[in-house]
Design a protein that fits this description.
42 strands, 6-stranded antiparallel sheet, 5 helices, 5-stranded antiparallel sheet, globular
Length: 521
């Protein structure tokens, strides 16, 4: 990597919205004509409040900005607009964070009388900066806490907020899963005076003539999974679903209820991270659930080594076992490395991400003594009936928290995954998009060729394609040099060669996740 001044202030200044007409990009190369549709991304965009000289503590705490890339042949138009969440509105009025964020504690809210008001009960942020998903012909954002909110595709205006308390939940993952029939499933947490539990809910498909609010009232609880320890319950960011099973992974990254109650009693403003513990002495526990009956498998299934994860890449059944692929990290140090001050100082530019794409194999036969997948993943039955899973590494070290696949292969046997290291520019996967052939172990990459952070790719399948990898990867590419030029790249997923790039004066914002929606609106 060339020698540069590691000052990324320009990438993490407050984002500027585009005009209502958007900005037409300058395209170099040729975008396949079959790509007709829109990409939506969400990610933190507002970090600083100059009038009070206040900045959030962590990249994760920035307020959501939605980017919309409308693609029609070689014409690419970009819109950027802030989600008008309650969290952003309150922060704007106060000049600082008011609702509890991940690493930034709340400040007292100033009332119309001029008095400060602070509640010992943490108010959950509705800042929809983590994921954007498509359900019932509508676009929604979420942060994986309690709320999801509609975004109007035509102008990116902010629509109705939905509260998962309506489902009896105190939190849900930001990654709901949509079945082939249009049913949406999600994993939530319910904390009550008698204990905590995980709950899988489903919302039936919404017909075009049906009111979405009425459809929500038809939600059902598929399964309830009590936690093994009331004092510590695992933080769930995603889960897996095959044709016949759900898979949850309880991890050593937990909410400490004793600590939570103590902090609430003291009344001190704290961030969400202050309620958590990393308990590596506790191994990850895999929970499988029959999708049709909701029955929870009682057999204990644990990992050989503890790991932290956010995103389950895929989960599918093959013969008499389940395959579960995740990007696993040895600990939660990635959080500290992506504090806003660390990113702006360019510390990530000289670091390597710690994630490895790992495969676990879970036998469906509870009496299987040893199961070894062709990848090398192994399951062993202990004398006490516990199954221990030994993972196979499907990549080298260096991925950042996620890898993506062709969305048509979610819950099905697949061959290819694609990943980046995002903020971390050193290591095996820095400054590039890497394709992983999970059958042969081969890797191939599109390399940015410069000092760039490469965002998570979005896979657009060729509607007439037959091969799994017949599609185009689209990703934001962000120049860490102040005088540099960020762009959006289009890469052939078969050859990993660049097809085109689109440049904008008001560049796309760094994002967490995105999705492609074919032309519908």
């Amino acid at each position: 990597m060339s020698e540069i001044n590691f000052d990324l202030t320009h990438l993490f200044e407050n984002q500027q919205e585009t005009s209502d007409s958007g900005e037409i990009g300058t395209v170099k190369g040729n975008i396949p004509e079959w790509i007709q549709g829109t990409i939506f991304t969400t990610g933190p965009g507002k970090f600083h409040f100059p009038e009070t000289k206040f900045s959030v503590n962590h990249y994760f705490d920035g307020y959501a900005i939605i980017c919309k890339l409308e693609i029609s042949g070689n014409k690419v138009t970009l819109w950027k607009k802030y989600e008008q969440s309650d969290a952003l509105k309150k922060a704007t009025a106060a000049g600082k964070t008011v609702l509890t964020e991940f690493y930034t504690p709340p400040s007292p809210e100033v009332t119309p009388s001029g008095l400060s008001r602070f509640s010992i009960i943490p108010k959950i942020s509705d800042n929809g900066h983590v994921n954007v998903f498509f359900f019932a012909n509508r676009i929604y954002t979420t942060n994986g806490m309690l709320h999801f909110r509609e975004i109007i595709p035509s102008d990116l205006s902010t629509g109705v907020k939905y509260d998962c308390n309506a489902f009896g939940l105190t939190g849900v993952t930001p990654h709901p899963l949509i079945d082939s029939d249009g049913t949406m499933y999600n994993l939530g947490t319910a904390v009550t005076a008698t204990g905590s539990k995980q709950v899988i809910i489903k919302i039936p498909p919404v017909h075009p003539t049906e009111n979405f609010d009425i459809a929500l009232q038809k939600f059902e609880t598929v399964s309830t999974i009590p936690t093994s320890n009331f004092l510590y319950f695992s933080i769930a960011h995603s889960f897996g679903m095959s044709d016949n099973h759900f898979v949850l992974i309880d991890q050593p990254f937990v909410i400490n209820m004793r600590k939570t109650l103590r902090l609430m009693i003291t009344g001190s403003p704290v961030a969400t991270i202050d309620y958590t513990d990393w308990r590596p002495e506790e191994l990850n526990q895999f929970v499988t659930i029959d999708k049709n009956s909701g029955q929870v498998r009682k057999q204990k299934i644990i990992s050989l080594e503890p790991f932290f994860y956010f995103n389950m890449v895929n989960c599918y059944q093959e013969n008499d076992h389940l395959i579960v692929d995740v990007v696993a990290c040895p600990d939660i140090s990635e959080f500290q490395k992506t504090l806003l001050k660390n990113i702006i100082a360019g510390n990530c530019c000289i670091e390597e991400a710690s994630g490895i794409l790992k495969r676990f194999v879970i036998p469906l036969n509870e009496n299987a003594e040893v199961l070894r997948d062709t990848s090398g993943a192994t399951a062993e039955l202990g004398v006490d009936g516990t199954v221990t899973l030994i993972a196979a590494s499907m990549s080298k070290k260096g991925l950042y928290l996620n890898a993506i696949i062709n969305p048509k292969f979610k819950g099905k046997k697949y061959q290819f995954a694609f990943g980046t290291s995002v903020f971390f520019m050193n290591g095996q996967y820095g400054r590039r998009i890497t394709k992983f052939d999970l059958l042969t172990g081969n890797e191939s990459s599109w390399n940015s060729g410069g000092d760039y952070m490469v965002g998570e790719p979005i896979f657009i399948p060729n509607p007439n394609g037959i091969q799994e990898d017949d599609g185009v990867l689209v990703a934001g590419v962000f120049d860490v040099r102040k005088e540099g030029k960020s762009f959006v790249v289009f890469v052939c997923a078969i050859t990993m060669l660049e097809l085109a790039r689109a440049e904008f004066q008001n560049a796309m914002a760094v994002y967490y996740h995105g999705l492609f929606v074919p032309s519908l609106f």
